[in-house]
Design brief:
The complex is a heterodimer of chains A (about 170) and B (about 300).
Chain A (H helix, E strand, L loop, with lengths): L12 H16 L4 H6 L3 H12 L6 H15 L5 H15 L1 H6 L2 H25 L11 H18 L7 H5 L1
Chain B lengths: L1 H4 L10 H22 L3 H31 L3 H44 L4 E9 L7 E4 L12 E3 L4 E8 L4 E5 L6 E6 L5 E5 L7 E7 L9 E4 L11 E9 L6 E8 L8 E5 L11 H4 L12
Antiparallel strand pairs in B: 1-2, 1-12, 2-5, 3-4, 3-12, 4-5, 6-7, 6-9, 7-8, 8-11, 9-10, 10-11
Classes of the chains: A mainly alpha (about 170), B alpha+beta (about 300).
């Protein structure tokens, strides 16, 4: 079902912050190396979702500062996540009206290359700063992220849904 | 520019693209700064403190689950582990004891090696086979005998000093009489002033004694006695004993001087049989030596 076809309550800013905190926490959990390879980038997914659905609340600035936090938490070089997140969030912001029309599975198809671009940019940054290639499993997270997209969208949209449409009309 | 003409409703702040440019260039700058100069460490540390609650939140459930899991480890598993650890510990301590013994042996062998080098490499390294079975005598049996070229009267030393001399020979073994054997005598000299004396053994477990010294003899405690070489059996200059106590009792004619051996005569497993032939004038005939018998050392044939 297209997201835009529903009538939604306005989102609370605190809820957006809360989802980002949850995403960051998920990213910080010390998964084993096997699990980590299959896990999507939760922060990137959440960020893309809000950029697509609430472009007036969440934008490139959010992307940048979240990326800073991730860089610090992971101990990476500064700016590794920043470049990637800024680029992809900008891309989504530019097309959020169009993307909002799509059904969720189609959005997922759109999100998958964006996640891949994220990974590619980060890979480029790391290799430019002297790290080695981490192996092809690095990109598996992209696929699982795209698969997770419909579920994540439903979940993040849940607080905005109106239980009884009749109430609105009255 | 355009934004100012728009109604407030459409106002969305700076355009995403300009934001992208700003933040992307900021990212790149940070990247370069961080990689090139590594000056952002304080920032990193400060912000990571702020991130700590999140990290705690992320790891707390896992560590809590682990703790619960630890709590329910079965008794049998613990017992099994305990038993295995006990076994391992026994094995390890046995190994450790062997290691310590080996280490000690090694140090002693090394010391003997250097002693042997000090004596121009002349000497036979020998291992103590057993103490003599007679409890009244201080004797050892070592694993070198006639077939190894050991001769009667050869001096046996350890790294610290004289242990004794070879007194009986067998083809493969030799008997060493220790300087503490009762009646065994060693002609000695005080290092400090060159006073000559004779050192008597008083039997195993007893101190050595210097006899027949006048009350006013210049011997003090802690004097080191070395062989004087007068008898022709002991080469001169080997440390023999250290004076422990000097009793000058006016009731007796002689000072009573007790000493302790310089060598660890009852400790080691390895000893050195010295091989130092010295050219000696011909020995006086037997009847001429008889009056001096009391003060002379126990001379093997």
């Amino acid at each position: 079902m297209p997201v835009s076809s529903q009538l939604l309550k306005p989102v609370k800013r605190s809820f957006i912050v809360f989802t980002f905190i949850v995403a960051l926490t998920l990213a910080l959990i010390p998964w084993g190396p096997m699990v980590r390879a299959f896990l999507p980038d939760f922060v990137a997914l959440t960020l893309l979702y809000w950029c697509m659905n609430q472009p007036r609340h969440v934008g490139v600035g959010w992307a940048f500062w979240l990326a800073m936090l991730l860089d610090i938490a992971d101990g990476n070089v500064f700016g590794q996540h920043g470049l990637a997140y800024c680029a992809t969030s900008w891309f989504v912001l530019g097309r959020h009206r169009q993307l909002g029309m799509f059904p969720l599975w189609q959005q997922a198809l759109y999100v998958a290359p964006l996640l891949l671009a994220n990974q590619l940019i980060m890979l480029l940054v790391r290799m430019a700063t002297g790290s080695g290639f981490p192996g092809w499993s690095y990109f598996v997270g992209t696929l699982s992220g795209a698969l997770l997209w419909p579920l994540l969208s439903q979940l993040l949209q849940a607080p905005q849904r109106v239980d009884k449409p009749a109430e609105i009309q009255s | 520019m355009q934004a100012t003409n728009q109604p407030v409703f459409f106002k969305q702040g700076p355009k995403p693209f300009s934001l992208l440019l700003i933040y992307a260039s900021l990212s790149l700058t940070l990247l370069v700064v961080d990689v090139r100069w590594q000056i952002l460490q304080p920032v990193r540390e400060t912000v990571s403190v702020a991130l700590y609650p999140l990290q705690w939140l992320a790891t707390a459930p896992i560590s809590a689950a682990q703790q619960v899991g630890d709590y329910f480890v079965s008794q049998t598993a613990l017992q099994r582990e305990n038993r295995k650890l006990q076994d391992d510990k026994l094995l390890a301590s046995a190994e450790l004891m062997r290691l310590q013994a080996l280490r000690q042996e090694n140090t002693q062998l090394r010391a003997l090696l250097s002693t042997r080098a000090a004596h121009q490499g002349k000497g036979t390294l020998t291992e103590v086979l057993y103490n003599d079975r007679d409890p009244f005598t201080a004797k050892l049996v070592v694993d070198r005998g006639e077939s190894s070229g050991v001769r009667l009267g050869q001096v046996v030393i350890d790294p610290q000093g004289v242990v004794g001399q070879v007194t009986r020979l067998q083809p493969l073994t030799a008997e060493v009489t220790l300087i503490s054997n009762k009646g065994h005598t060693v002609p000695v000299q005080v290092v400090r002033n060159g006073v000559r004396a004779v050192l008597y053994g008083l039997g195993p477990e007893n101190p050595l004694e210097v006899n027949w010294m006048p009350l006013n003899a210049d011997i003090r405690s802690d004097d080191v006695l070395v062989t004087s070489g007068i008898d022709g059996t002991y080469p001169p200059g080997l440390p023999v004993a250290r004076v422990k106590r000097v009793d000058r009792n006016a009731g007796s004619a002689f000072a009573r001087i007790s000493c302790e051996p310089a060598a660890d005569i009852d400790k080691h497993r390895f000893l050195l049989i010295l091989d130092e032939r010295r050219d000696q004038p011909a020995r006086p005939v037997e009847h001429a030596a008889k009056p001096a018998r009391r003060g002379a050392h126990k001379e093997p044939a």
